[in-house]
């Protein structure tokens, strides 16, 4: 009986939430109800994530959004490759000791627990470089779960009170102010996302990336650490763009998989993906598209800090490492 009551309450709350979301959309679009309903938009359905992660015992501590911010109080890290050693392991310990928020380390071993049935981890995943596995998962985890993300680099600051910045539901992404030279961009994606609806003057000059990189970078946040709200329009476009790239390249990736984890900046094995293709090239143009939802204020990880483990450069020779 009590259980039944709970179920009824849960259903009612979920319905109320989805109505509010629809209203939010419809008011923004001047009365036109354009938001897909929950039923035909599983990607935006929080309850699908909740059900699956609860059944795996991973919901309460890791995924449940903080009721005041809508963002879970965790920092995700990813590691794919040889075991962390030396500076890399020290960096990980530094994050754990200093960041003041539970740190989750996702690896090949525990990843299957986070594989959602309504959006399975892409079948191209095994063929990606370690770096691209992590990049792929950033879009996946940020869209479905949200929370903090940190590269495994030395961190001295606490983020314990930084999650409060997301009390404002308009803040989708809170991060470290970008610096000159930090922006990655792909002209095709930039033009598609920024120049089709309300083109700026620079759109007509094929200057999308140049503008972001040289003129507008200071409004953006860096790639390597942030706190993010799940299931926003931004994460949705990001995860679908990444999926689309992998759909297109699946055959090439099978024929030319990454030969070692920190591949491939020099065309090794004809690996088909560019270094920043899944992360920076998508992330920076999308930030610009949703600029009013981006907030700066996190402090950067320890600049000049060493973070490479001695085993990470081993096997940069394709024939040796295969
Ligand atoms: C995720 O799930 C899909 C579908 O069940 C499966 O094909 C895939 O191998 C899984 N990937 C990982 C990394 O667990
Ligand atoms: C990789 O190893 C092979 C075989 O030992 C050698 O012929 C080749 O020159 C090496 N390539 C590089 C880039 O070091």
From TrEMBL:
Keywords: Signal. Residues 1-16 form the signal peptide. This is Uncharacterized protein. It comes from Vitrella brassicaformis (strain CCMP3155).
């Amino acid at each position: 009986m009590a259980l039944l009551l709970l179920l009824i309450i849960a259903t009612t709350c979920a319905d109320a939430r989805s109505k509010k979301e629809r209203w939010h959309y419809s008011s923004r679009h001047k009365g036109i109800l354009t938001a897909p309903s929950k039923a035909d938009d599983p990607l935006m359905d929080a309850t699908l994530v909740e059900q699956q992660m609860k059944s795996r015992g991973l919901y309460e501590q890791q995924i449940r959004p903080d009721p005041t911010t809508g963002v879970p109080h965790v920092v995700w890290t990813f590691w794919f490759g040889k075991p962390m050693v030396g500076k890399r392991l020290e960096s990980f310990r530094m994050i754990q000791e200093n960041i003041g928020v539970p740190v989750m380390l996702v690896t090949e071993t525990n990843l299957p627990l986070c594989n959602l049935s309504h959006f399975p981890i892409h079948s191209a995943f095994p063929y990606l470089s370690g770096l691209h596995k992590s990049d792929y998962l950033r879009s996946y985890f940020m869209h479905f779960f949200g929370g903090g993300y940190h590269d495994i680099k030395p961190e001295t600051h606490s983020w314990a009170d930084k999650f409060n910045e997301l009390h404002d539901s308009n803040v989708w992404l809170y991060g470290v102010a970008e610096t000159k030279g930090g922006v990655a961009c792909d002209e095709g994606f930039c033009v598609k996302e920024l120049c089709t609806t309300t083109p700026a003057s620079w759109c007509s000059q094929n200057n999308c990336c140049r503008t972001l990189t040289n003129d507008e970078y200071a409004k953006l946040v860096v790639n390597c650490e942030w706190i993010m709200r799940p299931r926003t329009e931004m994460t949705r476009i990001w995860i679908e763009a990444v999926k689309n790239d992998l759909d297109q390249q699946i055959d090439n990736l099978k024929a030319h998989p990454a030969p070692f984890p920190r591949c491939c900046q020099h065309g090794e094995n004809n690996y088909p993906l560019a270094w920043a293709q899944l992360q920076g090239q998508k992330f920076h143009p999308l930030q610009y598209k949703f600029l009013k939802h981006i907030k700066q204020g996190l402090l950067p990880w320890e600049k000049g800090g060493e973070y490479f483990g001695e085993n990470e450069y081993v096997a940069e020779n394709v024939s040796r490492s295969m």
